[in-house]
Design goal:
Radius of gyration: 18 Å
Protein name: Transcriptional regulator, AbiEi antitoxin, Type IV TA system
Order of helices and strands: HHHHHEEEHHEHH
Strand order of the largest sheet: 1-2-3-4
Helix content: 40-55%
Organism: Actinomyces ruminicola
Strand content: 15-25%
Number of strands: 4
Distance between the termini: 42 Å
Largest sheet: 4 strands, mixed
Length: 177
Amino acid sequence: MASVVQTLADLGRRRPLRDVLAGFDAMLRAGRVTKEAIAAAAPKRSWGRPRLCRAIEVADPASESPGESLSRAVMIEHHLPMPALQEPVRNERGGLLGRVDFIWPERGVIGEFDGRVKYGRELAGGPVEEVLLAERRREIDIELATGMRVVRWLWDDAFRERGLLEVLAEAGVRSLH
């Protein structure tokens, strides 16, 4: 049976970034692999080695969900500037308002991937209206504290790419090429 490291190396050589990045991110976050171990699992002169090296280079354990990883893969494939991940945002008194999924400080943009798991976890404690109002309040508080614009996208936007790219372009995050 293949190890996690060997499986990631094999998939990284054969599959597009959007198909493998979530696995790389998750295994790095869980501490199950290292970038060095994945690189060592593939022969130096093997077919697909450049593709694997690119996946290793951009893999990031700070990405906390498959939707965030897919979103990042789309950003990478379309040459968007790379955001910082999971940055804490504080109010004027230093209180933590939360961590944001993506932030482009130089462009004044914060991005949030909205997946069902996030809301499902929060809904366990109350009605949907309360959860949505709390999330909207958080968004307003973050915009006021940072002076940045918060934009959001869904699974479908990331899967189909166009929706994610349009949301980001409208906020000023566009291809570098």
